[in-house]
Specification:
Distance between the termini: 28 Å
Structural class: alpha/beta
Mean pLDDT: 95
Radius of gyration: 13 Å
Number of strands: 5
Strand content: 15-25%
Number of helices: 4
Helix content: 25-40%
Strand order of the largest sheet: 1-2-5-3-4
């Protein structure tokens, strides 16, 4: 497919591998410009229908994913597809769950787990990853079951 995001666009995170992923909040309108080709939606209930392929990770607000293996598989798929597709990761507000998922993806891409929150806060949103248990989830993510 070889379609990627404009690296200067809102919510775009460049990972160490060069992959670009857009994070956003679903309570805001879809940004102008190209649409994603793949999305990972982190919500307690089913996400709205999209015109692109998507994965739903059941993840209540301020909590952790209901199925951590499923979440890991979705993050791995998103990161792999971001090499040549427009991938977005989103939750309701676009900060806590989205920041946590992006930090986990950073770990998958080689960022040390104890540096992943700071990495995402610098590149995505200064308040990304909102709760202590989300930070702990990220710190343990590289040791979590695969």
């Amino acid at each position: 497919m070889t379609e990627s995001w404009d690296p200067s666009g809102d919510g775009i995170v460049r990972f160490p591998s060069g992959a670009l992923v857009r994070g956003r909040g679903l309570r805001r309108p879809l940004p102008a410009g190209p649409t994603p080709s793949f999305g990972v939606y982190l919500l307690g209930g089913e996400p709205p229908l999209t015109c692109w392929e998507a994965r739903w990770v059941r993840w209540p607000d301020f909590r952790l994913p209901a199925d951590r293996r499923q979440a890991r598989a979705a993050f791995e798929e998103a990161l792999a597809r971001a090499a040549d597709e427009r991938v977005e990761v989103a939750c309701g507000g676009g900060i806590g769950r989205t920041g946590t998922a992006l930090a986990c993806m950073a770990v998958l891409d080689g960022v040390p787990a104890d540096e992943a929150v700071a990495f995402i806060r610098r590149r995505y949103h200064h308040r990304a990853v909102e709760t202590p248990w989300q930070r702990r989830f990220i710190r343990r993510f590289d040791r979590a079951e695969r």
